[in-house]
Specification:
4-stranded antiparallel β-sheet; 9 strands; 32% helix
């Protein structure tokens, strides 16, 4: 009588993964993880930009409200004014280019050690105001006494540093977020550094003229977010509040 033989499974057919199969799994997992991290990064960036856009809108509305109540725009805060306009009460501003005076405007939000309101990337929000008409825009009763027809705000927004195309002219005030890179680009790239400028005041880079750039988002080159106060809208709101004739 023949007894059937038993065949043991060969090593190649045993349960488990070969080194090649494990390598394939690791590659797939790496690709999936990489895609997930990329998606999370993109989603976080979109969220930060949306949040900062809302923040700029809130500051803009606060500026209009301040002008309607006081008849002027506030001066920028400085690195040493703890979020208050400098000088308190306006007049000739300590700095034309500085930071959002959140304490003066009554705004809440995250602030840094210098008391400056920060954007979603933890960089202080910048604020610039025109000094034209002998600082009438920041002086009590200055705009009214100058008369609306004679007011000549001189900030402007362009599509590039050389200002080939003027997007907005005769702008009284500018609000600016330097984005995730804090304006730290190649100093030779004049378009990318126009808003942050090359002037350093108390450790912060600030603009050094009245021109600003508004351009499409370009990763690793231009990620600034800018909002400007319309002169016509400012005048209209002030007229409705009885601050301009």
């Amino acid at each position: 009588m023949l007894v059937p033989s038993l065949r043991l499974p060969s090593r190649s057919n045993s349960a488990g993964f070969s080194l090649f199969e494990m390598a394939v799994v690791m590659v797939i997992m790496s690709l999936l993880l990489g895609g997930l991290l990329t998606s999370l990064t993109v989603a976080r960036e979109i969220s930060n930009r949306n949040s900062t856009e809302n923040q700029l809108d809130e500051v803009s509305e606060a500026l209009f409200g301040f002008a309607q109540a006081t008849g002027r725009l506030p001066c920028p805060a400085t690195a040493t004014s703890d979020g208050l306009e400098a000088p308190v009460g306006g007049g000739v501003c300590t700095q034309q280019h500085g930071f959002v005076p959140s304490a003066t405007l009554g705004l809440t939000g995250a602030v840094n050690d210098d008391g400056l309101l920060m954007d979603s990337w933890l960089s202080p929000l910048r604020y610039s105001v025109t000094t034209s008409n002998s600082s009438a825009f920041t002086t009590a009763d200055g705009m009214r006494s100058t008369t609306m027809d004679s007011l000549t705000p001189d900030l402007r927004v362009c599509d590039a540093a050389a200002c080939g195309t003027e997007i907005a002219s005769a702008v009284p005030a500018i609000l600016l977020s330097l984005g995730p890179d804090w304006g730290e680009f190649d100093a030779s790239d004049v378009d990318a550094t126009e808003n942050s400028g090359e002037t350093t005041v108390s450790g912060y880079r600030l603009p050094n003229d009245g021109d600003f750039v508004n351009s499409d988002y370009i990763e690793d080159r231009f990620d600034d977010m800018i909002l400007w106060v319309s002169a016509s809208l400012l005048y209209t709101k002030m007229i409705s509040a009885g601050q301009l004739p």
